[in-house]
Amino acid sequence: MSSVWRSSVLVLVLVLVLADHNVVYGARQLQVVPSGFVQTRGTDFMINGSPFFFNGFNSYWMMTVASQPSQRYKISNVFREAAAAGLTVCRTWAFSDGGDQALQMSPGVYNEAVFQGLDFVISEARKYGVKLILSLSNNYQDYGGKPQYVKWARSAGVPISGDDDFYTNAVVKGYYKNHVKRVLTRINTLTRIAYKDDSTIMAWELMNEPRCQADYSGKTVNGWVQEMASYVKSIDNKHLVEVGMEGFYGDSIQDRKQYNPGYQVGTDFITNNQIKEIDFTTIHAYPDVWLSGQNDNSQMAFLQRWLTSHWEDSRTILKKPLVFAEFGKSKKDPGYSESGRDNFLNTLYSNIYNLARNGGIGGGLVWQIMAQGMESYYDGYEIVLSQNPATADVISQQSKKMIALEHT
């Protein structure tokens, strides 16, 4: 038997064994994520008592697309390609308020077809070993969010002075709580598991990027986070809860405001995350938008300071793990190139990995992964893994490095 033949047989046997355990897709190895609930211990994420590090992605559009059964293959394709690149956490929306294809058509009135779309997303994530962070509302008017809740209240005759009454008005807060309860107690029509009992879900996010122009100190948002995080935990004490913050600093530690991109948005990274029902911290960063007049080097320097300051504060002050929950490079930027985006991701991934080696950060979630044929959803940050092999390789290499930390 020649050495070449022996090697070929060995490779074939290994592939067959791995395939039997569902850890091979195409030529890439998949990470098998345990089925337990994600928990925290100090500044680390854990599953079944073992460390959990991850590389992940955003795909906000999944529920809406999955509400049309003929389009569900796009969700399957994204999870398949993401799992092939070692991506094990996905952040997506569990809200769509008013408007076309709404989940919540009016307060407390739900579209079953859209809910079944979310059922499918959770079922497919479970199939491919991907944990989900599900966001429950939006600061912006996209998919309804804060403006839609306020509009509903105003239409019902409730005296409303502005969108930021979302955080303080009893009627509006009641609408939000009803949505939380409806989602958390939903029984998946495919898996027959209540969302609140499904370990496929990693965490509930209170709101995507809360902001409050009516109170830049962060105190108004703080009161809302305290009330809503407690409410979520009263229904579901199995899952983690996070705010959905971008990471802007407020008034609690004055010298931290130097790390903001020149302004505040009405949140306070420190006090908003000190609430005991909040299990981990998040940051987002878009220096190409926040610092649009600066060059790439200046934007990257800001990004590194942003990440490091929040990592330090999460570890030493908050004593909770951090997730870099949104970042990306837009094709709409002047001078954009795919190689430039890949270099950006490589640099940021290296920073995340180097910090993770010392504990305190679980991973990062790139914005955003899409399927082929979704041009109407493109925002400039889209990545179709099957069409961008170089970028997919950058992402895959980061996945391997993060997964390896679980065994060090």
From TrEMBL:
GO molecular-function term, one example from the UniProt record: mannan endo-1,4-beta-mannosidase activity
Entry annotated with the keyword Hydrolase: yes
Top class in the EC scheme: hydrolase
Catalytic activity field: Random hydrolysis of (1->4)-beta-D-mannosidic linkages in mannans, galactomannans and glucomannans
InterPro entries the UniProt entry points to: GH (IPR017853), Glyco_hydro_5 (IPR001547), MAN-like (IPR045053)
Keywords: Glycosidase, Hydrolase, Secreted, Signal
EC number in record: 3.2.1.78
UniProt keyword Aminoacyl-tRNA synthetase, yes or no: no
Glycoside hydrolase family domain: residues covered: 36-367
Matching Gene3D superfamilies: Glycosidases
Compartment list: Secreted
GO biological process, alphabetically ordered: polysaccharide catabolic process
Signal sequence, renumbered to the chain: 1-19
Highest taxon of source: Eukaryota
Any Pfam family the entry gives: GH5_mannosidase
PANTHER family noted in UniProt: MANNAN ENDO-1,4-BETA-MANNOSIDASE, PTHR31451
Family label: Belongs to the glycosyl hydrolase 5 (cellulase A) family.
Name this protein carries in UniProt: mannan endo-1,4-beta-mannosidase
Lineage: Eukaryota, Viridiplantae, Streptophyta, Embryophyta, Tracheophyta
